[in-house]
Amino acid sequence: MEIVERLALGSRVGLGLAAVGRPGYINLGRAADLPADRSVEAMRGRAHELLDRAYAEGVRYFDVARSYGRAEEFLGQWLRERPEVTDVVVGSKWGYTYTAGWRIDADVHEVKDHGVATFERQLGETRELLGERLDLYQIHSVTPDSPALHDRELHARLAGLGVTVGLSTSGPAQAEAIRAALAVTVGGEPLFRSVQATWNLLEPSAGPALAEAHDAGCVVIVKEALANGRLAVGEHAPGDVVALAAALGQPWATIVLSGAATAGQLASNLRATEIGTDPVRWKYLAMPSAAYWQERSRLPWG
């Protein structure tokens, strides 16, 4: 069964473990969301609690990455302890190396490299933790200047993985990166069959390119629909349910990720599937793309 058909069997909300795979992240409100003890075991327990609750509510897509601390480890262990769970789709990403050493106050939390050597090393690490459960492997945070868009050796190795190959994007030029990726072929066939991009009511600029990706047959995964918490708090916020519903309302969106760090947040996020909303109503919230990404870059790791 193709990955898009498998995804259609579950909720259109997926669960990303970026917020609970490591002690430090840039989501707002983390001091209240997480226990004071952010030990590996405490964070593992929180991740497993969220996975249990998400699965019980019909969530069937789980998103991790090499740079999300121990997220792959937490997810892999959860899957091994629940052999009856055979109907989930697991996506991970390579291209960033986690460097914070389980510290919140690290100077550098992750280092980006899209070279073949990093791919080979991180693929081995991912396979060790997730084994044959890996369904989707994405290049993490591709921008138009990424060598991953032009490295034919890398493309050949990706094409031979035996899983769906995709990419995630970030930055003010997401649309350009997506369109460049759609043009990459190996043996006359498109290489990238999924795109994961930031789209939210503050930063909707990737929308037209994501529609093109959808029309080309790609799985489209929306990340940061709450703008790292900025649409869940603050005077101008429409709230998490409306923000996620706006993303779910896009005809090109296959999956919209929840980045919940608590059971309450997850329950609230999942309510987005029960309502409809017109994104045009919230058009006034949209920011210039460059300003959005500058503001995001200033968010503290907490």
Task: State the gist of this model.
The chain has helices at residues 3-7, 30-33, 40-56, 71-80, 116-130, 152-159, 174-182, 207-215, 240-248, 263-270, 289-297; strands spanning 13-16, 61-63, 89-94, 96-98, 110-112, 134-142, 164-169, 185-186, 189-190, 194-198, 219-223, 255-258. The chain has 302 residues and is an alpha/beta fold.
Describe the structure.
With 302 residues, this protein is of the alpha/beta class. It has one domain (3-220, 227-297): NADP-dependent oxidoreductase domain (TIM Barrel), CATH 3.20.20. It contains eleven helices and twelve strands. The protein has an eight-stranded parallel beta barrel, surrounded by six helices. β11 (219-223), α9 (240-248) and β12 (255-258) form a beta-alpha-beta unit. The longest helix is centred in the N-terminal third of the chain and has 17 residues, at 40-56. The radius of gyration is 18 Å and the shape is globular. It starts with a helix and ends in a 5-residue tail after the last helix. The model has no long low-confidence stretch (mean pLDDT 94). It holds the Pfam family Aldo_ket_red. It comes from Paractinoplanes toevensis.
